[in-house]
Amino acid sequence: MENVQNKVVLITGASSGIGGATAKLLANNGAMVALRARREERLGKVVDEIGTDNAVYLKSDVTDLNSLKQLVKLAKEKFGKIDVLFANTGLYAGSQPDNVEISELAVLSNNGHLK
Description:
Rossmann fold; 4 helices; disordered C terminus
């Protein structure tokens, strides 16, 4: 994985599962990571495992576009750039995909997730 050395990767949904594992894998191979998720305690544990020299995080919800802007700013202040965005989050509309109401899709669209 030498191609991730010195790359800065912003990862959403990074407190556990695929996002957390990806953050650890990338950091173990020389990348720096900026992490975002709702569960601050779990995010903190991921950063503790990686080390604060190579990771920063911001507790936030995927529906809050301003918090994503804050994380971009935080990553640029700490690491000077962002090379990759790994969008590892999703929203649950509360129904099967073929039963989703237009109003539920509008919430996603208004938050910039379907543009």
